[in-house]
Amino acid sequence: MRDEPLHRALGLTDEEYWAVEERLGRQPNRAELAMYAAMWSEHCSYKSSKAHLRSLPTQGPDVLVGPGENAGVVDVGDGLACVFKMESHSHPSAIEPFQGAATGVGGIVRDVLSVGARPVALLDPLRFGPLDEAHNRWLLGGVVAGIGQYGNSIGVPTVGGEVKFAPCHTANPTVNVMCIGFAPRDALVRARAEGIGNLFVLIGAHTGRDGIGGVSVLASRTLDESSHESRPSVQIGDPFYEKLLIEACLKMIEAGLLVGLQDLGGAGITCALSESAARADVGADLDLGAVPLRDRSMEDFEILTSESQERMLAIVTPENMPAVEAVCERWGLSSAVIGRVTGDGQVRARLRGQVVAEVPARSLADEAPEYTRPMQAPSYLEELHEDDPTFSEVPVSVADAFRLVLGAPNVASKRWVFEQYDSLVQGNTIAGPGAPAAVIRIEGSLKAVAVSTDGNGRYGYLDPFLGGAHAVAEAARNVACTGARPVAVTNCLNFGDPERPEVMWSFAETIRGMARACEALSTPVTGGNVSFYNETEDSAIYPTAVVGMIGILEDYRLMPRPAFQPSHVVYLLGETFPELGGTEYADVVLGKVSGRPPGLDLEREVALQSLLGEAARVDVLTSAQDCSDGGLAVALAESAMFGETGFAVTVPGDLPAHVALFSESASRAVVSVAPEKADAFEELARSHRVAFTRLGETGGPRMVFDDLFESTVAEARDLYEGSLPGLLDVRREAG
Amino acid sequence: MTPRVAVVTFPGSNDDRDALRAVRMFGGEAIPVWHRDRDLHGAEAVLLPGGFSYGDYLRTGAIARFAPVMEAVRDHAATGRPVLGVCNGFQILCEAGLLPGALIRNRGLAFICRRVHVRVETSRTPFTSGIEVGEVLEVPIKHGEGQFVADGETLARIGDEGLVVFRYCSPRGEITDHANPNGSTNNIAGLRNESGNVVGLMPHPEHAVDPDVGPVGGQPLFESLLSSVLAPAS
Amino acid sequence: MKRRFEIVVSLKAGLLDPEGKTIQDSLPTMGWMNVSDVRVGKHVELTVDAANEEEATTLAQDVAQRLLSNPVIEEFRILSAEDVR
Amino acid sequence: MKRRFEIVVSLKAGLLDPEGKTIQDSLPTMGWMNVSDVRVGKHVELTVDAANEEEATTLAQDVAQRLLSNPVIEEFRILSAEDVR
Ligand SMILES: Nc1ncnc2c1ncn2[C@@H]1O[C@H](COP(=O)(O)OP(=O)(O)O)[C@@H](O)[C@H]1O
Ligand SMILES: [Mg+2]
């Protein structure tokens, strides 16, 4: 029997193969086919998502660089720019959690570096299956250790993230990593190969047989048994080498030695050359013989598509080459001139003078096929919506429900995770893990950047439009709780198989929701990443939009902390509705993921956030904590635990107690105010048209919820802090 | 005159910039020194910062201790002038034999980033000269390989000659196993050499000087250092 | 019967070994010129208590395969096994 | 001539081995009841180019002694040495 044609083995459809032939007017050779297969893979080309991504707002007064570059850039004033981007590394992490996650950090850091910024912070939104399964404990342990090892070694603090659990992630963990960098506005570089005759210089690690076909094989197909063959495409990260790469590249940029800079990620040299050439509308002449190899027996197509880590491609004028070599030598990095910028728009690869591949740069980078795939609302939704947990009767006492929710893995403290990360290095972490948003000081000024990553898979599952909108709103709310002004968004869209109409429908709805929220909150999208095929035969992950929100804080000294102090007045901002659909309460107490997620009134959301910002600016807030997973009860408990100060509150409204305490109605926050500032604060709230309820007062070791029940801060802390360590007690499984 | 403090950058050093900043905060002149340099640019004191020199490969500090600059550090130490190793710097000093014992993986294996308390056990070092014995300092740790170990004989010598400078303790100063984050023998967080001029510790004093971003338990160390550099104890 | 096993876990050939590479690169500056191809792996010793030799070996292999190594990136070999009491 | 050496570096007997202990602790939870005394060390392979066997061995020993192991806590042994081209 005949075995399948090469292009199919490489992941290209027959139609795509014909399109290649058409572009070239001839049959591609093996190397050329490998280049197209990699560049036209879902991961590199966004062929299924592009059409939808276009509807995201990308313009705004603060945006310096939007989607299309390696990372987004916003202006933070004083001649400084904030660079940020989020990316997914779920597929490799599913089969080798430590290295999969570690190399994910390496990749996103190089994206930020390639814009010319010093990486200053990392965040890691993670999703796993339940921890009672050894496999999931192994995944969590490996991923966290991998992120820690890489981030800690390169001296970039990991200051935030998320860890959430759902059965749908047992076979498909979600590993997203976000990196932020700072750079002087005028030092920003672009990934453009400007200047015919300039040199392409490959800096960093030698090229080996790493992840050949990694992007096309791993991230563009569902993990089935064949992922055994694709296994060698998981790579080993070298954070030490990355650290040298960071320092050397920043030195070269500072010295003005670079015309352009481009990271090497998916599709390796092929992607870096064709993208940087296409952006500048030029071509590239590449000498494969000049690429430093780890393994001399590598074939052309392997050198062209290898995804070896810790490499950067610099575009350098011939005059500056000696200086570039000197910097690399000082930092112990290898640097090699592997090609030149040409005027003919072709990517041409030679080996010993022989041309082994010649294709138009644009055809690789910009002319991949684009699909508007069939979409259809999942049939199960209707049924799910009818089963609204808000009206199910309450199986346990409110006090027990409180304990169940506070100790639930999604809600409980993630200390076990974030203590494995260096959150202090670089010395600018004003607020780190545990805070609603992380806050990074801009050295030598009172300004700071606040950042939060958020996404609720249950909401996305029950209503992808709301899932997308809530992700944006909650991230912005967390940022606003620090007094910062939310300015821009990056994101990771984690979905199943786009060739299934239900998945594609959820994807489109999610983007519609994100776009709506981003417009309302004036926080344009500057970039992100799409991760499809997060599914195995039996299970797909929830449609999970993870949003990374950046905000600017003018004076970090005025930042409210999410911690109560004694004898303050406690307020609930916003209104509580009977909304238990998709909530933590419904999940852990009723065992239900059903109903509709809480609604979202974006006008209310905007009002709340501007109030929080203004209240911080005029210094009337002592603490602010957003009210989301677990509702009012959890928000109060967290502020109490962080401040080691109890409270006594009356539970507002005529809602049933469990609804009032655990509803996850949006656009709410729990704040505390010094008594003498209460009037001023209430006045401010009225002027912003934000509903507020005076709940009670802070102080003492006890947490008193009306006449319903009471607990102590100490007891709550034991539950909250003890939950994950308890579940991971037998976590010792090694890699 | 302004006291000059050299901060050495090895490939993989991360807290070098923080250390330079801390030295400046306390009125010292911070002098960056490269691992290939063969002298300390005339500095009165030298600080080996934290980080992951050579990626912590093989053993922490195992490769860095061969760096050309280490000869200069050795000579500097031999003449009784102040040498401070923080975290990876401490590990390098142990590997170089300038301090006794060794640092192995934390007892729980995991990297730990956390605020801890340490009790000052001696004032007879340039870094603790201004601190009362028994005083408790709050400082952060962030390491995966900070478990101090040594053979019985060495431990006995450390005890007899009073070489322990810091011990992990409770906020109230009790030396308990609960307060010991990494399993270090006798809660040892920091050590000195016989003549007291070479000190190493796992906690990060340079990350404990600015109240905006952390605790302030590191302040007295830098104050002591800079004043003792100005008025060398005879 | 009790048997003591020595197991070596190493990165699959072809994969980057950052630790080996870094040691390799540092050797010349330490004056060792003609040392090459440094690779670093794990060496694990353990004692297995089983009815007989085959059982012991199978168990050791099982542990090496499922706990000590990840077949995605690593391979292992059992160096030796000797009786202990 | 070129010789390939296998060197094992392990913690001295007296010292507690955190990694070994952690693996040990996890064994029962994974259903392995009768595995004990787990010790984890390093396994280093390297190629030495020298005039003759003695020289090669001396050099390998020197590297193992001065770089690969820390005499304060570790001991090393050369497992094997064979000619390579
Ligand atoms: N979900 C998204 N929202 C907005 N922009 C996106 C999204 N996904 C990808 N992009 C943009 O598409 C471009 C290509 O993404 P990617 O291939 O991940 O970049 P890189 O290869 O540099 O990591 C980038 O500019 C990225 O910001
Ligand atoms: Mg990129």
What do these coordinates show?
The complex is a heterotetramer, with one copy of chain A (735 residues), one copy of chain B (234 residues) and two copies of chain C (85 residues). Chain A is α+β, with helices and mostly antiparallel strands and 735 residues long. Chain A has 26 helices and 28 strands. In chain A, the strands form five sheets. In chain A, strands 8-10-7-11-9-12-13 form a seven-stranded mixed beta sheet. The longest helix of chain A is centred in the N-terminal third of the chain and has 21 residues, at 134-154. Chain B has a nine-stranded mixed beta sheet with strand order 2-1-3-4-11-10-9-6-7, with helices on both faces. A two-stranded antiparallel ribbon of chain B has the order 5-8. With 234 residues, chain B is of the alpha/beta class. Helices cover 29% and strands 42% of the residues of chain C. Chain C is elongated and about 50 Å long. Chain C starts with a strand and ends with a strand. Chain C binds chain D through residues 4, 8-10, 20, 23, 27, 30, 32, 34-50, 59-60, 62-63, 66-68, 79, and chain D through 4, 8-10, 20, 23, 26-27, 30, 32, 34-50, 59, 62-63, 66-68, 79. Bound molecules: adenosine-5'-diphosphate and magnesium ion (MG). Residues 70, 111, 263, 265 of chain A line the site of magnesium ion (MG).
Give a topology summary.
The complex is a heterotetramer, with one copy of chain A (735 residues), one copy of chain B (234 residues) and two copies of chain C (85 residues).
Chain A: H1 6-9, H2 14-24, H3 30-39, H4 42-45, H5 50-53, E1 63-65, E2 72-77, E3 80-88, H6 90-95, H7 97-113, E4 118-128, H8 134-154, E5 158-165, E6 174-184, E7 199-204, H9 214-218, H10 239-254, E8 260-263, H11 268-280, E9 283-287, H12 300-305, E10 311-316, H13 321-330, E11 335-342, E12 346-351, E13 354-360, H14 361-365, H15 380-386, H16 398-406, H17 415-418, E14 429-431, E15 438-441, E16 448-454, H18 457-462, H19 464-480, E17 485-494, H20 501-520, E18 525-531, E19 535-536, E20 539-540, E21 544-553, E22 569-573, H21 584-590, H22 602-617, E23 623-626, H23 631-643, E24 647-649, H24 657-662, E25 669-673, H25 678-687, E26 692-698, E27 702-705, E28 709-712, H26 713-727
Parallel strand pairs in A: 4-5, 9-12, 17-18, 24-27
Antiparallel strand pairs in A: 1-2, 2-3, 3-6, 4-6, 7-10, 7-11, 8-10, 9-11, 12-13, 14-15, 15-16, 16-21, 17-21, 19-20, 22-25, 22-26, 23-25, 24-26, 27-28
Helix pairs in contact in A: 7-8, 7-10, 8-10, 10-13, 19-20, 19-22
Chain B: E1 4-9, H1 16-25, E2 29-34, E3 45-48, H2 69-78, E4 83-86, H3 88-95, E5 102-104, E6 112-120, E7 136-143, E8 147-149, H4 152-160, E9 164-169, E10 188-192, E11 198-201, H5 219-230
Parallel strand pairs in B: 1-2, 1-3, 3-4, 4-11
Antiparallel strand pairs in B: 5-8, 6-7, 6-9, 9-10, 10-11
Chain C: E1 2-11, H1 18-26, E2 35-49, H2 53-68, E3 74-84
Antiparallel strand pairs in C: 1-2, 1-3
Bound molecules: adenosine-5'-diphosphate and magnesium ion.
